[in-house]
Amino acid sequence: MGAPLLEVRNLRVEFPTRRGTLCAVDDLSFEIAPGEMLGVVGESGAGKSLTGMAIIGLIERPGRIVAGEIRLEGERIDNLPAEAMRRIRGKRIGAIFQDPLTSLNPLFTIGEQLVETIATHLRLGRDAARRNALGLLAEVGIPAPELRIDQYPHQFSGGMRQRVVIALALAGRPQLIIADEPTTALDVSIQAQIITLLKRLAAEHDTAVMLITHDMGVIAETADRVAVLYAGRLAEIGPVREVIHAPRHPYTRGLMSSIPKLGEEHERLTQIDGAMPRLNAIPPGCAYNPRCPERFERCSRERPSPLPAGGNFAACWLYDR
Amino acid sequence: MTDSAGTNLLQVEHAGRDFDVSRPWLNRVIEGVPRRSLRAVDGISFSIRKGETLGLVGESGCGKSTVARMIVGLHPPSRGRIVFDGADLADPASAPLRRRMQMIFQDPYASLNPRWRVSAIVAEPIVSQGLAADRAALPARVAGLLTQVGLSPEDGDKFPHEFSGGQRQRISIARALSSNPEFLVCDEPTSALDVSVQAQILNLMKDLQDRLGLTYLFISHNLAVVAHIATRVGVMYLGRLVEINDAKQLFEQPRHPYTRMLIDAIPDLQMSGKARIPVAGEVPNPLAPPAGCAFNPRCPHADERCRSELPALLALASGGAAACHAVVEGRLAN
Fold first, then answer.
1. Binary contact (A193, B279; C-beta < 8 A)
2. Is the pTM of this model over 0.80?
3. Would you call A215 an interface residue with chain B, using a CB distance cutoff of 8 Å?
């Protein structure tokens, strides 16, 4: 693998509150190669969306990055002034969010929103931008783009709106797209269409994607590598096949076996007892240790860093022997 | 429909429900537009046997939640009838029967009153249905219910915001069980939960069913969850039941093209590398459903008959029932 497109090193995001500081992302490091699809999974509150927001510089106050760095093609982007970051966002890093209705402005037609994005980032005239927009709409599979381009978001169905959002994300020809739960608000049949579309377009445009989702099935179908987050920390990272078929971290193992699967009959599902700790009550040592069936004395004392485990890296003392 | 074994606890007979979606009166008068009604559920018939779990699946807007609400009486049916343990629920004399059913909702953040302590929430059905002969026995009963769903009796003194989503759903279940119901209508009870917590709730629901002999109507859009928990499964599309069968049969040998499509659309966790057939199109607008079979615009097997004639839900020789001309005519290879 050559130089990474995106490097996240020891990222730490904190939220000061009246009752002390909450650490929502804690010492997180990973890389994304050019054209790679990295899946980021975890349960709600694991810090996956926040990591995506940190990369595009949109962490809501009072949250802030307190340590670590984010590099795009070797250049630091986590400490850029707002104006410089605004030029990167949309141009070099695109974003797709969960709810397509809130990502689109209801007062402007799809065409106006696309043309503005394209004209801003690609420095094209209105006519050229409009031709470009029509091409993008056709590319994301919107039937009759000449007709649809002058319609408003409410005239589109959920699946079609998400296609428009994908077109918007691609408009600046970014090197990286942060896709935060892009299919969660959609029905299964539409979800399959959108995943297929995203995967095809990312390959055609040679765009890297950071796909944030809680759905392991979506990851299995699309990602090259997977990062599993737990309580704001990296639990495991590795090639998708390894993580799904041979998970090393006890949390990933528990997570994988708690998913009901078609064609497998069990009277009971394997369950992980308890719940992910709240951010104000993360246990010392490994954050997973109170729920872990394989914990030993060291786990509640020392926090593990990601260690080589098979083809993966797992933050677990089991692999330090 | 075939009722081979067991007695039916609940029967839904040709039930339908319309919603009035007309513009306001003044607009109708000025603009001369007529009233419009949306047919959310139409001509649905199925039965649930004692002690079984009937799963109901379908995409958003297919009417599965409306069916749940018709059964518990939140939306009375516009047509047809619902029979519970031999009595028509529309009959005022059947009101006491309603105590024997309860509902669990999807969102445990919205379904619990944030100003009430958990003990009051759990005790509410007992109090409101006048089931407590002795007020002094109430705290012990609440403690027992909380223990039954895997919480501790001391949790009764807390407020809902002190609990995680999974624990809140346990509170909802404890509340539903407090009036000793036989039948629980569960509308997407695990859809708002993370997978590891979902597994806990599904296991809890199975344990409670074994222990208390409960009957469930389990509604979900997640086929894998339904395959895990249900004994029989019905598939809905645009307000109608398109297929119903034993869970194992339905998932191993789906007959209706829509069921096949739904199963095919599930992301492949095994990574077998099978090529999935992308499903074209979207669910049509229920205000203007297509003529004939509602699925025909998306169906690869649709022909002239499918575009003009509504298929009836017919029992199949292989068990179960499907509403599809192609299946009945034998046009579909297995």
1. yes
2. yes
3. yes
